[in-house]
Amino acid sequence: MKSRMSISVSIVEDDAPTNEILADWFRHAPGFKCAGQHETAEHALEHLPAEKPSVVLMDINLPGMSGIEGVRRLKSLLPDTQFLMLTVYEDVDHVFDALAAGATGYLIKQTPRGELLESIKEVHAGGSPMTSNIARKVVLSFQRPAQQLGEAAELSSREREVLELLAKGYLYKEIADLLHISVPTVNTYIRRIYEKLHVRSRSQAVARFTQVQGAVGGRPRSTLP
What we know:
Radius of gyration: 20 Å
Structural class: alpha/beta
Distance between the termini: 48 Å
Order of helices and strands: EHEHEHEHEHHHHHHH
CATH topology of the largest domain: Rossmann fold
Number of helices: 11
CATH architecture of the largest domain: 3-Layer(aba) Sandwich
Number of domains: 2
Largest sheet: 5 strands, parallel
CATH superfamily of the largest domain: Response regulator
Number of strands: 5
Strand content: 5-15%
Strand order of the largest sheet: 2-1-3-4-5
């Protein structure tokens, strides 16, 4: 019986024509229904819990709260709902941030109708669809040459401690308290870490360090909690 049920989809997209086109697709596609339409993450936060969609199509560049922050907040309210990003952003930073926030798929807006519908079926069935060129960029971000091992090795012991705490999800203030240093000092360490690892965000730094540790067959040595 479950296979005959329609997949309910809610849309969070600030461009009204795009929002309406997507809604029309779901209204006329067998096995789908449009549960709701929203133009801001704030509006979605207010109404999605009542809609309880199976899948949410979420844009990133929204007025006010970003789609990534919207996913982060909505995921705790709708743990069984799958969030699929549909955006113009193709850089790895946005992909990592979206996935870390709770998204389970990432597509670009040029995705054809048929592919989008299949991706929604896939994410509803437990998969993690991703536009092919996005997936390739993610893979390449982990396939750095051996010199990256040397870059990570250049981190001081204190910088490694800070990075490991970042990887565990600690906030800057919490890191400062644990290491008995000031928040500005934490910021200085993080800026140095970004420079040495050639990254621009927390998610990239953590991903790079995790990849390097896996390459050398071990975990960072630390006495941190």
